[in-house]
Design brief:
Structural class of chain A: mainly alpha
Helix content of chain B: 10-25%
CATH superfamily of chain B: Cupredoxins -  blue copper proteins
CATH class of chain B: Mainly Beta
Order of helices and strands of chain B: HEHEEEEEEEEEEE
Distance between the termini of chain B: 70 Å
Number of domains of chain B: 1
Largest sheet of chain A: 2 strands, antiparallel
Number of helices of chain A: 15
Oligomer: heterodimer
Shape of chain A: globular
Largest sheet of chain B: 7 strands, mixed
Structural class of chain B: alpha+beta
Number of strands of chain A: 3
Largest interface: A-B, 120 and 93 residues
Number of strands of chain B: 12
CATH architecture of chain B: Sandwich
Helix content of chain A: 55-70%
Strand content of chain B: 35-45%
CATH topology of chain B: Immunoglobulin-like
Strand order of the largest sheet of chain B: 2-3-6-12-11-8-9
Strand order of the largest sheet of chain A: 1-2
Radius of gyration of chain A: 23 Å
Shape of chain B: elongated
Amino acid sequence: MAEFRTCPDTGFKIDLNADKLIKWNAVTAVVFLLIGGLFGLLVALTRWPAVHLLDADLFYLALTAHGLDVLLVWCIFFEIALLYFTSAILLNARMVFPKIAWIGYWMMLIGALITNVAVLRGDSSVMFTSYPPMMAAQDFYLGIILFAVGALLGCLVFFATLHVARKEKTYEGSIPLVTFGAMTAAIIAVFTILSGAIILVPTWFWSLGLLSHIDTIMYRVIWWGMGHSSQQVNVAAQIACWYAIAAILFGAKPLSEKVSRTAFLLYILFLQLASAHHLLVDPGLSSEYKIFNTSYALYLAVLGSMIHGLTVPGAIEAAQRKKGLNKGLFEWLTKAPWGNPVFAGMALSVVLFGFLGGISGVMMGTEQLNLITHNTIYVPGHFHGTVVVGTTLTFMAISYWIVPTLWQKELVFPGLAKWQPYLFGIGMGLAATFMMGAGTLGVPRRHWDMTFADSAMGFDFPAAANLMMGLNGVAAVMGSIGAAIFILNMVGTILWGKAKVPAAAAPAEEAPAEPNVTGAATSYGSAGTMEVPGTFVLAMIFLVSFVLYYFVNWKYLSSVWGLS
Amino acid sequence: MGIFPPPQRVWWNQPIEKSEVMWITIAFIWALVMFFMMPYWHLVGEQNLSNEAYKIKPEVYAEKVETWAAKYTVREEGDTGIPVVRPPAGSDVYMLGRLWEWWPVLELEKGQSYRFHLSSLDWMHGWSLLPENINIQVHPNYEMIFTVKPTSSGEFGVICNEFCGIGHHTMVGKIHVVDK
């Protein structure tokens, strides 16, 4: 029989099993953020030409570990915590199969440790992508497979919990939008993990000597069915968090449930379709396939993201205007709680994800434009714009609410927390920008020495390329300080935080609205009046930047050598 | 609120607010523009990578490149001992990637089109022509063929931008483009 406690802040009924599982998954996630983040800092310091910290072998080792520990382990542990939160807690439901959830947790943890040991041993520096015919030690693949199966069990527990909550009628009507977003993430995760299994299991057999050959193109097509889709899991989870934060801080209702849910549906239908972004300059694939796949049919998943980009800030604007912050276009925004890390982190991530991660992703995912970006450091620039200042910053933001609420403790360093989203967001946002800048000059990714000192022929990059890689190092140090403050705050709060005094202790601004608050924000059916003019203006600024940047790159492409 | 079930049980036929409708329309039009840019560029653009490729054994490819290079070698590149190969304008040219070099050095004529053959003898490599910044993924066992037309002259570097082991960062080749 499930046991419950009632959350003193929100009034949610919390299944004690879910409570414990969310905490363990979230804490494990943060530990891997620390490990992976440290490796990332070492990578950035090595790629800073004037510092050039690590030797080549250690650099490639650190880069492999960095990718695995943050891109895979940190994100997915945190997402499993979110899945349990958005199912059991938001639906006031009991968690189904907690034992399976624990088995999943331990499989993920043991798998992550096995792969980390393989990498740290030094014989598996094959990068996160582990492209054959370069072979890692067999336990490198085994660890990832265990991790993935563990994550799959987490998804199954999520779906089972949704099903039982519906059957036991723990809520009225449809599931909340945030849970719907999490469900989107979980559906994509299942597809992702199956793609991973299809390619990594044979690759593991190959490393054991049971298979003689892995076709490199087949590997890249299917591996990216996992690799690209796993980032779509992040996007869906992160956007679910945006809606959650808008609701928690502002009592914001979605402008339209129909629109927001349809946008998530577009993800399920089209986002995971894509993996060809990575294959646009590979041999043996047709342009028809490349164009259809890389554009998610007709950029329908990009359409989904652009919709969320309007509806998330739009929901906040509507809620703020309802409260009387109605002056001009932007009073709702200027009077937003910028000193609250939950809001600041979320707001920064909406902007940075859109401008840095989103626009660059669409640009370099264009069949021909990929010629001038593929495998340059533009690519890591892009995905630091999505996974770092998008997903990671969002997860940090919501942690400032989840951790004090779930543990019922006060933040240990609230003053530092105020600055943390800016340090991390702006630091890593700059790092992403400088990487993209260096990439447009052709600086390669995954490369120890862009001066080619040990090479027979050599090549000289323009001084601007070296400068930008140096600035990338400086920005990464700034971002790392931001990440360190976050980790310190979370670990400190959990270990030494003062217990919250019930109810009254909830800080006024961050106080989550009572569950029975309804109709706080906006009424439906207001078509005819422009309800969110500020957001619309911001969206148009985004669109204009997008269009300009997109065509600037076509112009740039048209100036290079002819290819046909 | 997004964290609670929608207050109205029937939410799917609620009217949509005007700014949302406008934005969705604009975004969808933009999506279509971006989609059709790709086929459009295939029709009018000068930079489209051909998808012609053949399966080939690395040793067969190596022999093909070496025979061809022996025929058209004009000199050595500095004191590196690497041949500089200058094929007839408009003909087939070959390059191979292996740990850790792009071989051989090529000399091409500006404004001429060449059928460019590219493959790897061992691991995956990333063919990156600088400072043009043209980047192509090179697989072992696949020979890809595309037409290249140098539109600028001078000395161009070819670096590797797919990780290929401990010497990856030393893998640099060269293409000379001369004015006719």
